[in-house]
Amino acid sequence: MVENYSRITAKALREAMDDGDELAIVDFREEGAFAPAHLLHACNIPLSRLELEIRDLVPRQATRIIATDNGGGLAARGVARLRALGYTNVALFANGVEAWRDAGYEVFSGFNVPSKAFGEYVEHAYGTPSVSAEELRNMLAGPDPVVVLDSRPMDEFRNMNIPTATCCPGGELVYRVHDLAPSPDTTVIVNCAGRTRSIIGAQSLINAGIPNRVAALRNGTMGWHLAGLELERGKERLAPDPSAAGLEVARACAGVVAARFEVPIVREIPPAPERTTYVFDVRHPYEFEAGHLKGSRLAPGGQLVQATDRYAAVRGARIFLVDDTGVRAVMTAHWLRQMNWDASVLEGALTRGPLETGPAVPEPATSKTATPVDVPTVGPEGIEGAVVVDFADSRRYAEGHIPGAWFAIRARLATAHLPEADRYVFTSPDGRLARLAAADFGRPVAVLEGGTEAWVGPLERGALHMADTPDDVWLKPYEQDGTVEENMQAYLDWETGLVQQLNRDDTTRFWSRLD
Questions:
Q1: pLDDT digits over 88-142, tens only?
Q2: Are 321 and 343 in contact (CB under 8 A)?
Q3: Closest CA to 196 of 301, 340, 284, 302
Q4: Phi and psi dihedrals of 343, rounded to 5?
Q5: How many CB atoms lie within 10 A of CB 259?
Q6: Burial 473-485 (b: 16+ CB within 10 A, else e)
Q7: Are strands 387-390 and 65-68 parallel, antiparallel or unpaired?
Q8: Per-residue model confidence as pLDDT tens digits over 28-67
Q9: Are 388 and 407 a contacting pair, CB within 8 Å?
Q10: How far apart (Å, rounded) are the C-alpha atoms in residues 123 and 515?
Q11: pTM to 2 decimal places
Q12: Fewer Cβ atoms within 10 A, N terminus or C terminus of the chain?
């Protein structure tokens, strides 16, 4: 019963944030429900996906965890499930958002907020230079050399990019820039969709001491669009691997940064069973899949800084960063340390012992107390006559699902508006979430072998057959209802307002080195 769970008040939680011990605040709502209002340091792990994500985000089962939501009982269910999964130090912060607000503390909206706020802090602290869309347009039309580096991953670059830009994700900038702008007379402009990765990327190059003029594109591709300028779409210009000469300069730059920001560089991970330890490989995904350290997780450096809460939920944990040359690890670590993470570079890890290949797909966490449910699987022929239920997120479901399949959310499966049927077949992109949902169902059900990714027939597109409210995905400004331009401007205003919110909140203390 919920009454038997340990509970915590807003005041006690606020004190816990400053006591120096490890702490994970987990909000169990769906992503789209979480985004409008939450605690700054809450990590969003939807109850629907708990078994798939908890081991990566909170790997140590003795970690102090505070479970929260905004009412509705998800946090209480989350406490019960965490305990069943073997987590031993879990407390309930009931009605978290409202209780936090009622106690006079700051509530935040948006996603990846600590990282976004850090980007705004960096611009204020370092005075990161920037140029407007109109200024960049004139620079590109002028006689002087200009290189535009887009600090987002390729999937975002492909969606829309500044004309002439090259995709060079943020953690790669110092590693690859020396061949892209070999002359000190070339101006380097860094952009992203909005602000954070532009600022962090430009300041990374400045911190590394490259001789070029460097600036962020103010407000990124959104600012370019709002200025009435045309974006390119469908391009795939990826920054090449560095030459030997470029790598030599990059190593020297990283050495300067490591010394200035006192980045620890270690050969081995010191044992500390009482502490949470994350090992992140900050290279490009194709490099990770070609060979990575066993037990490490892919976390490309720019994305790790941009969305730290997507990778690490435990405040006070240790982070060890891995790459092949040390450049990307150092540049990532120097930002994480300024965000008050205990971050170090694990040197030479990829040269010792055998490496694993391919993407790392962890097995779902399993209950220590519940009896395993044996769920049958079927091939494509097995869906004939059954109601197919798809547990992909609503964005992916709309992009393509098995014809006639219904969209549902696992955590609300008991109240989903599904048609009555004698037989159901559950699916999800790779089948893992579908199997977990089937174990919850309590009615005759099978799981599609291999999930929707194994389906070879035609797909149906659109938000059709919705058995639940699609509040599971946080929508980007250009995906939301309403005028795109108004949504973009509202998003940019939200980002620039985060510094003032941080000052009111007083639970976060970033630092900078201006010498």
A1: 999 999 889 999 999 999 999 999 999 999 999 999 999 999 999 999 999 999 9
A2: yes
A3: 302
A4: -110, 135
A5: 10
A6: bbbbbbeeeeeee
A7: unpaired
A8: 999 999 999 999 999 999 999 999 999 999 999 999 999 9
A9: no
A10: 16
A11: 0.94
A12: C
- Nearest-5° Cα angle at 126, 125 to 131: 115
**Contact yes or no for 487/477 (Cβ under 8 A):** yes
Residues β-bridged to residue 93:
68
Q: Which amino acid is at 191?
A: N
CA distance 377 to 391: 16
Cα→Cα distances 159→53, 232, 275, Å: 27, 8, 40
Q: What is the pLDDT of residues 387-438, one digit of tens each?
A: 999 999 999 999 999 999 999 999 999 999 999 999 999 999 999 999 999 9
CB 317 within 8 A of CB 276: yes
Q: Quote the DSSP letter at residue 411.
A: G
Token readout for 133 is 């869309």
C-alpha 56/C-alpha 325 separation (Å) is 25
What's the rounded Cα separation, in Å, for the pair 353 and 322? 14
State the Cα–Cα distance between residues 43 and 28, nearest whole angstrom: 9
Angle at alpha carbon of residue 23, lines to 18 and 29, rounded to 5° = 120
The phi and psi torsions of 27 (rounded to 5 degrees) equal -105, 125
65-68 and 90-93 strand pairing: parallel
> What is the C-alpha separation between 398 and 458, in angstroms, rounded?
14
Alpha helices in 149-271 (DSSP H): 154-159, 173-180, 196-207, 220-226, 244-260
